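Checklist before submission:
- one chain only
- standard amino acids only
- sequence pasted in full

Submission:
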Amino acid sequence: MLHTSFVGNSIGGGVRKMRIVGALGALALVSLQVVSCAEANPSTTPSAEAATPEKTISVQVVQAKEGRMASTLSYTGDVKPRAQVALSAKGMGRIEELSVEVGATVTGGQVIGHIERSSLEAQLRQAEAAVAIARAKLAQMEAGTRAETITQAQGNLDAVREKYEAMLEGGRAETISQAEAVLRVAEGRLAQLEAGATKEQIQQAEAAVRAARNQLYAVQAQADAYLGTRGMPFTEEMKKAQAGASYEQVAIAEARLAELKAGATTEQIVQAQAAVDQARAALEIARKPFTTHDLKQAESAVIAAEQQLKLAERPFTANDFAMARAPIAQAEANVDFVKAQLADTNILSPMDGVVAEKHLSVGALASPQTSILTIISNDQEIALAFEEALAGQVSIGQPVSFSVAAYPTSTFTGTITSVAPTVDPRTRTFAVKVSASDDDGKLKAGMLARVRVNIGERTAAIVVPEQAVTKRGTENTVFTVVDGRARSRRVELGASDGKNVEVKSGLEAGAQIVVGSGTIEGSGNIRDGDAVVVEKQ
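Returned file contents:
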């Protein structure tokens, strides 16, 4: 089988090739030998004998053949990872741990290091303590007031209520009776003063004077007898000292008698009247000891005590509980926030892949703007640029094959996964991406891949070896052998596979094509019209 492909220039230095597989028979090498013999002519002129013989070039030729061919597009492109991520820390801090090196395999979500976190750990402990305090306060509120506090509030209510009820009932009976008795005495005293002393009162007063004097005389006689036995003089002062209280009783009795005989003075009556008024006021107070203001105060005290008891029994409202729960939610949110910050100190692999580059080491200062590692995906792809004329010949899902210089005997397969919907107006190309199958892990990012895309089959194509084509400027030429002479033919080329090339015009099947001269491959040393001799194969 003969493989040919179309040769052309692609943007970026890649070479485009269209493979043509033709069911051609073996190219017959035809050996043509042109022998120039000069007949011996004894009559040759001296001028002919002196002429320089023409140089003849020995060449190898093949015959251009016609056959069926499969066509492929051939492009070059770089092997690239399907995804590449420059990994950086979410926060700022010094790297404390980095457990991977270049070439290490990582999985998505794997912790591969962390930055400093001691301050955040302290903040987390503080935030958790705040949550515990807030929850303890709520638990205390939900437990309610202690029993002794409720008992105390109940006792206070009972006391002020009893006092208030007593105030409503008025004064005590014994207090009223006592006040009435005092009033009667005062009224009697006033009436007596206003009426004057009776005969019986004067007689009683006189009798009291006599009794007081007799008592005084008895005491004096006893004193005289005592002093006489000691031979001491007996004076009036000594008598008074010995008599003592007896003199006073006599004076009181005599004054009382004189008062009764003289009658009450205006001042005494006024005083007695005042005593009566005072006793009456005291009786009124005893009967109604509290004013309206006092009762209002006592009633207010009862109401306050009732409120205190209710507060002790149910000290917190629904709003109080809501306000107590709010700090818990706030503290828990703060804990979650600090935990999130703490989690952000971890350096996580964003995907399955391989560490391609390591930019920072342990101890370096990391930030969201600084790349620590470059991670590439395990899946590889090849980016190609196709001319816009080929837009109708490639599609997603189309299979391809490719090779790389590192493994010249290996052929890799892939699939077109992406075809750009637009053409770049500057280069007149559109982007195509090919997924690369590499189960053995041979491919590495950056390798140059030669990609071949099968686009169909052609028939009746004329094929010649690629080394038979000479490019002069923008023109492609081949040399044919006609009557022992090399004849230049301008041709239009089609597909090529690096060995054979399709001739689209300028050459017919069966033509003898020069593929080499002597030890030189190709026809670069031959000019149009040169005499040639075909080597025998």
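Reviewer check: The chain has ten helices and 26 strands.
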